[in-house]
Specification:
Order of helices and strands: EEEHHHHEHEHEHEHEHEHEHEE
Radius of gyration: 20 Å
Number of domains: 2
CATH class of the largest domain: Alpha Beta
Number of helices: 11
Distance between the termini: 29 Å
CATH superfamily of the largest domain: Enolase-like C-terminal domain
Helix content: 25-40%
């Protein structure tokens, strides 16, 4: 079996309501879809995250990776991952767009692998560690304290028992919003907060001290990803919350620095951090540091959600899965029969091969950008 075609498709769709995270405003959802087709007719699909400039990711796959993969055995997945990575590693491309592009190709090869053996990916990864995947609702975005509390109440009333709240509006305003949210929902509901790297070390520490009485589960990405000294400082001063990060890292080398400096929860994004192959390496490395894995999904397509669900079912140090409740047409595709959360869990019951979804390129036909 050989790879006969490696195709890429840019998809974009405007959002009905834009929202702001840190210094970036989301006005559309976008992704690069990767399609690997073999000479036997078996195919696989993957996704590369593309918040900005999906054209860049597409170009990397088309011009650098495609010549490496055409006519090759698709089941040599780890070999292909390292071959793609090492092609540009000595030129400084060991993160960012380059690793995001690897992610889409890697997921497509794993999907293809599962279809070739007629097995879901989680069975290829050693089988199920769990059948019920705990989820949290993501996310409550910046607004007034009253409006954020109303949103939290709506989400909880829908059956979620864990919610994530975006912070970064300023220490005092964040505290006011979190206090309002906590008072609006039952004390049994878990809350985590996500700053998307908005704070410096001192600001983050001030917020940590203010929220100690609010029973916050974890503080996610309080600092810039390269502020390793800041993370080390924070980890030694946090008493009641876990410290979480990882969505802005791309390989085990960056994750290793976070783990060495006190991170308790690692959040790789499977369509950003090198796909399933590298996700597994991150999970195993994190386990050696007694840290948990909580896959980041964010504003991606259903392929990301499905791939993250497959690894969530398999890895032993899994903590919780990010279920996006934010409006996103790239995930709300009823024809895929993607499992919905019930009472804070998603049940893995499918035996469908590969990613476990009936994905076909035509599903996104209305969103493909002319190329």
């Amino acid at each position: 079996m050989k790879i006969q075609e490696l195709n890429t498709y840019i998809i974009k769709v405007p959002l009905k309501k834009s929202f702001k995270i840190s210094n970036y405003t989301f006005k559309e959802a976008s992704a690069v879809i990767v399609e690997a087709i073999t000479d036997t007719g078996i195919y696989g699909y993957g996704e590369s995250v593309s918040r900005i400039s999906p054209e860049t990711v597409k170009s990397i796959i088309d011009n650098i990776f495609k010549p490496l993969l055409i006519d090759q055995d698709p089941l040599r997945i780890d070999y292909h991952w390292n071959n793609m990575f090492n092609t540009m590693r000595n030129r400084g491309h060991d993160r960012g767009f380059f690793i995001e592009a690897i992610s889409g190709v890697d997921i497509a090869l794993w999907d293809l692998f599962g279809k070739n053996l007629n097995l879901p990916i989680y069975k290829l990864l050693g089988g199920q560690s769990r059948t019920d995947i705990r989820v949290y609702a993501s996310s409550i975005f910046w607004d007034s304290p009253i409006e954020m509390a109303k949103e939290a109440k709506i989400i909880v009333d829908e059956g979620f028992n864990f919610i994530k709240v975006k912070v970064g509006q300023g220490v005092n305003k964040d505290y006011e919003c979190l206090r309002e949210i906590r008072s609006a929902i039952d004390s049994s509901i878990s809350i985590s907060i996500d700053a998307n790297c908005a704070y410096d070390t001192i600001q983050a520490l001030k917020l940590v001290k203010l929220i100690e009485d609010l029973d916050i589960c974890w503080f996610e990405e309080p600092l810039k990803p390269d502020n390793i000294e800041g993370y080390k400082f924070l980890s030694s001063h946090i008493n009641s919350q876990y410290l979480a990060a990882g969505e802005s890292e791309f390989t085990i080398y960056g994750i290793k620095r976070l783990l060495e400096n006190g991170l308790n929860i690692i959040q790789p994004d499977i369509v950003r951090a090198g796909g399933i192959t590298n996700f597994l390496k991150i999970a195993h490395l994190s386990e050696a540091f007694h840290a948990y894995i909580a896959p980041h999904t964010g504003m991606s397509s259903v392929i990301c959600m499905a791939a993250a669900l497959q690894v969530s079912a398999a890895v032993s140090n899994f903590l919780i899965y990010e279920h996006m409740v934010t409006e996103n047409p790239l995930t709300n595709l009823p024809e895929l029969d993607f499992p919905k959360p019930m009472n804070g869990y998603i049940k893995i019951s499918t035996e469908k091969p590969g990613l476990g979804i009936n994905f076909e390129r035509g599903i996104f036909k209305d969103y493909i950008v002319d190329q």
